[in-house]
Specification:
The chain is an alpha+beta fold and 198 residues long. It has 6 helices and 8 strands. Strand 5, helix 4 and strand 6 form a beta-alpha-beta unit.
Length: 198
């Protein structure tokens, strides 16, 4: 479920943080992405119910590259280029300046270390500062308490609950809707950063 690149392989980095960077996903990543979709804990936390073939995944990755309403990136560690998850801005609506965001950190050993938080802040900055979005929302299932804490730490606010939105493992689960607005992101990250550099 993880992938390393040799030092000789140039890696395209769209967004860079101190510990992680976000890079485009390519057809060469099909095997990696395919294996992730069959990781049982990742499937549970994301509510993934369907099965996929490698051919379907390859077509999905190719289609994402042509889709101007979404941006799918892999999350990799700065220290060794190991891919630890993925993040996506989806359903970008230029009229209403809104989008949905989702993230997955694949292995339990990589969770709870702040990698997801850093990746989210990078992608939110891209969404608000480059794509000129006003609102970015997400859905998280009520049993994913670690993710909920992460989203609240980043600055997402709870808006509501979609009752019994997911049926998984013989049970219904609520989906919590959370969002962040552009001015909230700027107040928390952009203005604070400017203050520190003055």
């Amino acid at each position: 479920m993880t992938q390393n690149y040799s030092p000789a392989t140039p890696v395209a980095r769209l967004l860079e943080g101190s510990r992680v960077y976000l890079r485009p996903i390519n057809v060469e990543d099909t095997e990696l992405y395919y294996n992730t979709l069959f990781h049982q804990e990742v499937r549970r936390l994301t509510g993934t119910q369907r099965s996929f073939t490698k051919e379907q995944i390859a077509r999905y990755i190719e289609a994402k590259g042509q889709d101007s309403s979404s941006l799918l990136l892999l999350i990799a560690l700065q220290e060794d280029d190991r891919v630890i998850g993925d993040i996506a801005l989806q359903d970008m609506d230029s009229l209403n300046r809104s989008a949905n965001i989702r993230i997955a950190i694949n292995e339990h050993g990589d969770q709870g270390k702040g990698y997801g938080t850093e990746a989210l802040v990078l992608m939110l900055g891209y969404g608000f500062g480059i794509c000129n979005l006003h609102r970015i929302e997400l859905n998280v299932f009520d049993f994913n308490e670690q993710a909920i804490r992460c989203y609240e730490k980043v600055g997402f606010q709870r808006e509501g609950v979609q009752r019994d939105a997911l049926f998984y493992n013989y049970e219904y689960h609520d989906s919590i809707l959370m969002s962040m607005l552009q001015h909230e992101y700027c107040a928390r990250y952009v203005e604070k950063s400017r203050e520190l550099t003055q």
